[in-house]
Write a structure and sequence with these properties.
By secondary structure, the chain is mainly α. It folds into two domains: 205 residues, no CATH class; 101 residues, no CATH class. It is built from 14 helices and two strands, in the order αααβαααααααααβαα. It has a two-stranded antiparallel ribbon with strand order 1-2. The chain binds zinc ion (2 copies). The site of one zinc ion (ZN) has 6 residues, from helix 11.
């Protein structure tokens, strides 16, 4: 999310204010502590309103709609492949330069920096749907999980202790501290290339939709859909949300086993992010995509609650075993 406050040095802010966090201890995010951040609320509201204004100022055309959708999905990939599957879960490897590309691309989605995002997300998996989950719809309601927690003062700082494996890269820390740089560069480039129509449809409207496209995984994907695995949280699998989010809708699979680069596990579980990662692997830009190991499949026989398919053997038969040669550590 956009933030107006001045960038703060990463080594003094969150570590002091949140000394126990980052090692599995309790995060300090709660609606009853702190306040809604005026700058974040204002900017979120402004981007929504400018997006709607864009439709009025520049009536829809096929090219503008295509720009809006294209801008949505390319930045969604920055979030799903970069922020989520790479920085939060480290499900594949890549070079330092492409790591930065992923962080920059994700940052253009205007959901703060990669390290902020990944550090908070690691806490979500640690405390899913418990009282101290950052954004559980079960604990604090749908709107808090969808959007409230992001604009709340208790979540605005990066939990540096939770993302120490990436703070050794100064370019990532700078990008995280200067969260508006990538969105401004992106929006300015659009304006330079296509003027007002490109700016309003390609950035403001696309970004507003992209926020909700991302946020539904925290909100809807914990209340709407089917459950293949009896995870300790309320995560769901949902085809519609998977289409909207390049594969993140297979959230119950993901909560059951979050170390896989692949979240759609069966051939029909569409996972656009994974297909793109496989392509990048063939181009030698990424490598060592982690799959779903045997022990996860065998474990599924005892706690799977979906009836299609319900046993480990059926799962193995149904899955497209393109992960066979991949590391599953
Ligand atoms: Zn979740
Ligand atoms: Zn995750």
């Amino acid at each position: 999310m956009l933030l107006l406050e001045s960038p703060k040095p990463h080594n003094t802010v969150e570590i002091l204010s949140n000394p126990a966090n980052g090692d599995g201890s309790k995060p300090q995010v709660a609606p009853d502590r702190g306040h809604y951040e005026p700058s974040a609320v204002f900017l979120m509201t402004a981007v929504h309103m400018l997006g709607i204004a864009g439709i009025v100022l520049y009536p829809p055309s096929w090219s503008l709609i295509a720009l809006c959708i294209g801008s949505y999905y390319i930045r969604m990939f920055g979030i799903t492949a970069g922020y989520h599957r790479y920085f939060a879960h480290r499900t594949f490897r890549t070079s330092r330069w492409f790591q930065f590309v992923l962080a920059f691309l994700g940052s253009t989605a205007t959901q703060r920096g990669a390290l902020w995002w990944a550090a908070h997300h690691r806490d979500h998996h640690r405390h899913s749907d418990t009282e101290i989950d950052l954004h559980s719809p079960i604990q604090r309601g749908f709107w808090w999980s969808h959007i409230g927690w992001i604009v709340h003062s208790s979540s605005t700082a990066t939990r540096w202790n939770n993302i120490k494996d990436f703070t050794k890269y100064p370019e990532l820390v700078v990008l995280d501290n200067w969260r508006l740089v990538a969105p401004i560069v992106y929006a300015t480039t659009l304006y330079w290339l296509g003027g007002g129509p490109a700016l309003f449809w390609g950035y403001f409207l696309s970004t507003a939709i992209l926020w909700h496209g991302t946020f539904v995984i925290n909100s809807l994907c914990h209340v709407w859909g089917s459950r293949r695995f009896e995870t300790s949280d309320t995560s769901r699998n949902n085809l519609w949300l998977a289409l909207l989010t390049l594969g993140e809708g297979w959230h119950n699979n993901h909560h059951h086993y979050h170390s896989s680069a692949r979240q759609g596990w069966l051939w029909w579980e569409v996972d656009g992010t994974y297909y793109a990662l496989k392509l990048l692997e063939k181009l030698r830009i990424v490598e060592k995509l982690k799959g779903v190991p045997e022990r996860v499949w065998s474990r599924s026989g005892s706690n799977a609650i979906s009836n299609t398919p319900s046993t480990a053997a059926e799962l193995r038969t149904a899955i497209n075993l393109i992960d066979a040669t991949e590391s599953a550590t």
